[in-house]
Amino acid sequence: MFVFDDFERHCFEKPHTLMGYINSFIEKNKRHVVLLSNEDEVFKNDDVQYGRIKEKVIGQTLTIDTPVKYVFDCLLKDLSKNTKLQQSISVLQSNYDDVLEVVLQSGYKNFRVLRQTIQNFARIYELIGHKYFKNQMFVKKFVKLFFALEIEHRMGKLNEDIFEAISSASYIPILGLGDKNSDKDETPNEKIASEIIKKYNISTLFDNWIFEFSIWGKWLFDCNVDKETIKNGLNESYFF
Q1: What distance in Å separates the CA atoms of residue 120 and residue 79, rounded to the nearest whole number?
Q2: At what angle do helices 96-106 and 86-94 cross, to 10 degrees?
């Protein structure tokens, strides 16, 4: 038996070509073949030939739809076995409903991204310092905002231009906080920024972001935020 994983990552622009190659194992070598794939991604190419070949080659299609909540629970349980992550995982477990709400709001089912986001939370938890997480108001706001930004960024929707649209003062009127009679049209970046804000019910008012926008930008896009920068940002926050 041959198993081909992540078929959608390897089929490039002509999935029907790869399907024909795989079919040779069936017809010539008389082997059983299993394809693991996110077929929605394959059909994005609108490859009519793929659909036709699939009809002839694939004997049975099974859909695996694992509940996000179940995967999230398993990830927390598995990662908590790592002694270095236990304290940060305990914070997520204590704020389980808030974090899960954001994960479900995202609408994504990329469990690799979810795992990476939890691990990144552990990283920033160490940078921030344990004492700040004694403030429950801060924790509640922080975990929701962190997971929303991290997931959208890792899924490729929140890039630097979109983030600039969110943080820009000129974007406020589009959110109804400025001149309601303004006939200014949304730019493509502002439209995506607006979708992200509405999805998670995020306010663009500065105080709701805990840090300055520039600190979030460094974390998301530069990955070079140091403890001193974060400490200074927290000390200027209304939480502290």
Answers
A1: 12
A2: 80
Cβ neighbours for 101, distance < 8 A, ≥ 6 positions apart? 144
Residue 238, both tokens: 């209304």
State the amino acid at position 3 in one-letter form: V
Q: For residue 9, what are the CA distances in angstroms to 22, 62, 65, 131, 153?
A: 15, 19, 19, 43, 20
Whole-prediction pTM: 0.79
Q: What is the mean pLDDT of each run of 10 residues along the chain (240 residues)?
A: 82 70 83 84 68 79 89 97 96 97 95 96 94 93 96 96 82 45 72 92 75 92 91 88
Which runs of consecutive H residues, i.e. helices, occur in 44-187? 48-57, 68-79, 86-94, 96-106, 111-128, 136-154, 160-167
Listed in sequence order, the residues at least 6 apart from 92 whose beta carbon sits closer than 8 Å to its beta carbon are: 76, 99, 118, 121, 143
Nearest to 103 by CA among 88, 121, 85: 121
Helix (H, G, I), strand (E, B) or coil at 3: strand
Is residue 158 within 8 Å of residue 149, measured between CB atoms? yes
DSSP 195-233: HHHHHHT---SGGGGSS-HHHHHIIIII----HHHHHHH
Sign of CA dihedral 176, 182, 183, 185: negative
CB atoms within 10 A of CB 127: 14
